[in-house]
Predict the 3D structure of the following.
Amino acid sequence: MASTDSMSNPGWNILFLAWLLTIASALTSIFFSAVMQLPPCVLCWYQRIFLFPLAFIFTTGLFFCDKSVVRYALPLAGAGWLVALYQNLLVYGIVPESIKPCSQGVSCTESYFDILGFLTIPMLSFMAFTIILVLLYTFNRRISQ
């Protein structure tokens, strides 16, 4: 558990939000595949590869109030954001389907889940990685002051 001094650190709350969003995103991803039986595509697996370690990195950063957590989390969040962006460009037809990585198995462009006409699983992932990146940027600015 973090000490009282670390709890009063304004950056700790931002890191906690990033941890909370990462945990919620990872549990949602597991829920979609294990409970709703929605098979993940290739790009979804890549995004999981970048998302799941963030839960451990943020947990360690919170526990020890480690200010260098940005150094370890930023490359993973950035790579996940790029994969999510690429998948969304595929889904919306901006990138041609001829260069999609999922030639066999589950399609990376098929929509299994849709809320309000635009909240698909790739869009949820893109939004989560974007918010995590914004929180990391804010945390980095806050601790450098």
About this structure: The radius of gyration is 17 Å.
